[in-house]
Specification:
Blueprint lengths: L8 H10 L6 E5 L3 H9 L5 E6 L2 H11 L7 E5 L22 H4 L10 E4 L4 H11 L6 E4 L6 H8 L4 E5 L3 E5 L2
Parallel strand pairs: 1-2, 1-4, 2-3, 4-5
Antiparallel strand pairs: 5-7, 6-7
Helix pairs in contact: 5-6
């Protein structure tokens, strides 16, 4: 399973993750090909946490990972509750209603060094990090920004600074 990314994007993410300090933590919302790439390239001193809301996709990624899984990687399935208007690949994907556990599964996501937001409710996840991330120098990336700019621009305006990197990645600054 390859990441659903433009060819220039994984090398950028890999470089950012490779340059993180020792004992760093990567947190991603939305698992998939990037999860597999992270598991293949993860340093022994790094930890990755992946959060997924879709049961079928969660199981597909687990099966694909197979023996590539590492002890310093955790994949959490955090389903939506009945309030979420599940309409995949529509604007409803960005409604935070019914996604309490997915959006904020616990304090363990707040001490990341790199965040890859590549799942549903990207603007909401970004705002949670803006409000609560402990590491104010953490790297925050929203994937697919270029093609969904109108979905997220309202939230991006609340960040002190942002910049596009690669074809569709947006890097957000927490301070």
């Amino acid at each position: 399973m390859e990441p659903f990314m433009f060819p220039d994007e994984w090398p950028l993410i890999y470089e950012l993750s490779s340059n993180l300090p020792p004992n760093s933590k990567i947190v991603e919302w939305g698992c998939g090909g990037s999860t597999i790439k992270f598991c293949e390239s993860l340093r022994d001193d790094q930890t990755i946490i992946s959060i997924e809301h879709n049961r079928e996709w969660f199981e597909k990624v687990l099966n694909e990972l197979g023996t590539k899984q590492k002890s310093n990687w955790r994949l959490y399935y955090k389903p939506a509750n009945d309030l979420w208007p599940h309409e995949t690949h529509t604007l409803a994907d960005d409604l935070p209603i019914g996604l309490d556990e997915y959006l904020y599964p616990g304090d363990y996501v707040l001490d990341g060094d790199l965040y890859l937001i590549d799942g549903i409710c990207r603007a909401t996840v970004a705002l949670i990090l803006l409000a609560k991330a402990k590491n104010r120098d953490a790297i925050v990336l929203i994937h697919d920004y270029t093609f969904r700019q109108h979905y997220y621009e309202w939230a991006v305006k609340l960040f002190p600074r942002s910049e596009r990197i690669g074809t569709s990645l947006l890097k957000l600054y927490l301070r």
